[in-house]
Amino acid sequence: QEKLVESGGGLVQPGGSLKLSCVASGFNFDIYAMGWFRRPPGKASELVAAINSNADNSYYTDAVKGRFTITRDNDLNTLYLEMNDLRPEDTAVYYCAAAASFLACTRNEMDRWGQGTQVTVSS
Q1: Do 75 and 28 meet the contact criterion of CB atoms below 8 Å apart?
Q2: How would you write 35-100 as a 3-class SS string?
Q3: Which of 47, 87, 111, 114 has its CA 20 to 30 A from that of 34?
Q4: Cβ proximity of 61 and 48 under 8 Å
Q5: Where does residue 4 rank: exposed (0-12), middle (13-18), buried (19+ CB within 10 A)?
Q6: Contact assessment for residue 95 and residue 37, using Cβ atoms and an 8 Å cutoff
Q7: Residue 111 — φ and ψ, nearest 5°?
Q8: Is residue 120 a contact partner of residue 10, using CB atoms and an 8 Å limit?
């Protein structure tokens, strides 16, 4: 069974940090580009960050550049999103997703989705 399972979300104060993880199973994780998306309350989802299959290319939306870092460990079939200097506007459900290529990922043409993990930034 193909699965993506996120973890690491929670409640954090502004300026704090969280590290999200996404464990893949049931498919060849190391040949897929991966992305982190988020859906803020009442808003559409957006691509936050993306990384290609061998981790030598990445993308960040402007709102998180310099604060978030996407990485992956193909030996562990795991994708990460390290989030620093969190702000209330980062509050959202965060999803990981897989795409057949990095280009497809940046175009939101994803093949597989996780169930999401809630991140709440509030004092």
Answers
A1: no
A2: EEEEECCCCCCEEEEEECCCCCCEEECHHHCCCEEEEEECCCCEEEEEECCCCHHHCEEEEEEEEC
A3: 87
A4: yes
A5: buried
A6: yes
A7: -95, -35
A8: yes
% of the chain with per-residue pLDDT over 90? 98
Distance in angstroms (rounded) separating the CA atoms of residues 28 and 64: 28
- Confidence band of 59 (pLDDT split at 50, 70, 90): very high
- pLDDT tens readout for residues 88-123: 999 999 999 999 999 999 999 999 999 999 999 999
Q: Which SS3 state, helix, strand or coil, does residue 1 take?
A: coil
Tokens found for residue 76: 């562990």
**Tokens in use for 46?**
């957006």
How far, in Å, CA of 61 to CA of 50, rounded?
9
Residue 121: phi, psi to the nearest 5?
Answer: -110, 110
* Summary mean pLDDT of the chain: 97
